[in-house]
Recover the amino acids of this structure.
C-alpha cells in the first residue's frame, strides 16, 4: 500500500484593487447610510477594480505572491484551478488565461463556478488531485470582480460586495496538510441568490432584469446560510473526531459579520480566534477566504502547526468547509 499523501498549503498570496469605496461614498448615489451598512453587515468599505482591471489581473497578482511565498516556480505547477463566478470572458477559462500569464504552459487549468463557495470547492478539487497522486503542485485561486455584475442603483445588493483575489499553492506532503473537505449544494434555492443572465438561456436585454446583475432575497439567504454553515462545521468536527473549541482559527467566508459570529458561536470560539476582513473587503465572493487566510498568515496570527477551519456559503446554494493543519 502506498503511503498517505496530504495537500499542504505551502504559500499564500492575495491582491486587492487600489480603489476603495466607503459606505459614505455609496450614500452619495443610493439611499443608504454608513450606520445601516455597518449595523446589518459589519462592512465599512470595499475595494473596486479599476476600469479595464479584470479578474485575471487580480488573480495574477495574488498567484505571484503565493508562488513566491511557497518558493515554487510557475513552471513546476501541475494544475491551476480558479474559483470564480466573474470570469474575464466566457471562454477560455480564467485559469487558462492565468496559466499563460504565469508561464505555466502545459499544466492542466480550469475554472470552478460555485459562487461564493468557489475557493472551497476549488481547494477540495486540488486536494483530491494531490491525494490521488495525480498532481504534486497545484495553484488554487479565488478571484472576483463582483462590482461588474452589480446593479449600482439597488441598495439591497450593491453595498455588500467588493473585488479581490487570494491564492494558495498546494504541495504534496507526507506529514500533514488538508485533513478533510466537505461540499454541499441545494440547486432548489436558485432564485434566492442569482444572476439570471446567461448564454444558453439567451441574452434578453428587453427584459427588466436582463442586465448583468445580482438578485438576492437577503433575509432568506441569511437564515439558510447560518443553518447550512452550522451543519457543515458540525460535520467537519465529527469527521475528524474533534470537539467544539478544538479549532485554532476559523477563517470564514466574509459575507456578513453576523453570519460569521453565528458560526463562531456554534464552534464555541471567541471572536479573537476568527479572522475577520469583511469590514474592509466587503464580500469578495470566491476571493474572500483566501484573502482572509493570506492576511492572517502575513500578520503572523496564523502559525505553522495550527488547526484551521475554512468555510463558505454562496449562490447555488453551495456551501462547504476544509479542515487543515497549517
Ligand atoms: N440601506 C438602507 N436600507 C436598506 C438597505 C441599505 N443598503 N438595504 C435594504 N434596506 C432596507 C430594506 O428596504 C428594508 O426596508 P423596509 O423595512 O422599509 O422594507 C429594511 O432595510 C430591512 O431590509 P431587510 O432585507 O429585511 O434587512 P436585513 O436585516 O435582512 O439585512 C442584508 C439585509 C442583505 C444585510 C442581510 O439580509 C444579509 O446580509 N443577508 C445575507 C446576504 C448575503 O450574505 N449574501 C451573500 C451570501 S454569499
Amino acid at each position: 500500500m502506498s503511503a498517505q499523501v496530504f495537500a499542504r498549503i505551502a504559500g499564500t498570496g492575495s491582491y486587492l484593487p487600489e480603489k476603495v469605496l466607503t459606505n459614505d461614498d455609496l450614500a452619495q448615489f443610493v439611499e443608504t447610510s454608513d450606520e445601516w451598512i455597518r449595523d446589518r453587515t459589519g462592512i465599512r468599505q470595499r475595494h473596486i477594480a479599476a476600469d479595464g482591471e479584470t479578474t485575471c489581473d487580480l488573480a495574477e497578482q495574488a498567484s505571484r505572491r503565493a508562488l513566491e511565498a511557497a518558493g515554487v516556480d510557475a513552471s513546476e505547477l501541475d494544475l491551476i484551478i480558479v474559483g470564480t463566478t466573474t470570469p474575464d470572458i466566457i471562454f477560455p477559462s480564467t485559469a487558462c488565461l492565468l496559466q499563460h500569464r504565469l508561464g505555466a504552459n502545459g499544466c492542466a487549468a480550469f475554472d470552478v463556478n460555485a459562487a461564493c463557495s468557489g475557493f472551497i470547492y476549488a481547494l477540495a478539487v486540488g486536494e483530491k488531485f494531490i491525494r490521488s497522486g495525480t498532481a504534486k503542485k497545484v495553484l488554487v485561486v479565488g478571484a472576483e470582480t463582483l462590482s461588474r455584475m452589480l446593479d449600482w442603483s439597488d441598495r439591497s445588493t450593491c453595498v455588500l460586495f467588493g473585488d479581490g483575489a487570494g491564492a494558495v499553492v498546494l504541495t504534496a506532503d507526507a506529514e500533514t496538510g488538508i485533513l478533510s473537505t466537505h461540499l454541499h449544494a441545494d440547486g432548489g434555492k436558485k432564485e434566492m441568490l442569482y444572476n439570471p443572465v446567461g448564454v444558453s438561456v439567451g441574452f434578453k436585454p428587453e427584459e427588466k432584469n436582463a442586465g448583468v446583475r445580482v438578485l438576492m432575497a437577503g433575509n432568506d439567504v441569511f437564515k439558510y446560510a447560518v443553518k447550512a454553515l452550522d451543519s457543515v462545521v458540525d460535520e467537519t468536527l465529527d469527521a475528524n473526531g474533534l470537539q467544539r473549541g478544538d479549532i485554532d482559527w476559523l477563517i470564514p467566508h466574509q459575507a456578513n459579520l453576523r453570519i460569521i459570529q453565528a458560526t463562531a458561536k456554534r464552534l464555541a470560539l471567541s471572536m479573537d480566534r476568527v479572522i475577520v476582513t469583511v469590514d474592509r473587503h466587503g464580500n469578495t465572493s470566491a476571493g474572500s477566504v483566501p484573502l482572509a487566510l493570506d492576511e492572517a498568515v502575513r500578520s503572523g496570527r496564523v502559525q505553522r502547526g495550527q488547526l484551521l477551519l475554512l468555510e463558505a456559503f454562496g449562490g447555488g446554494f453551495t456551501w462547504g468547509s476544509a479542515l487543515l493543519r497549517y
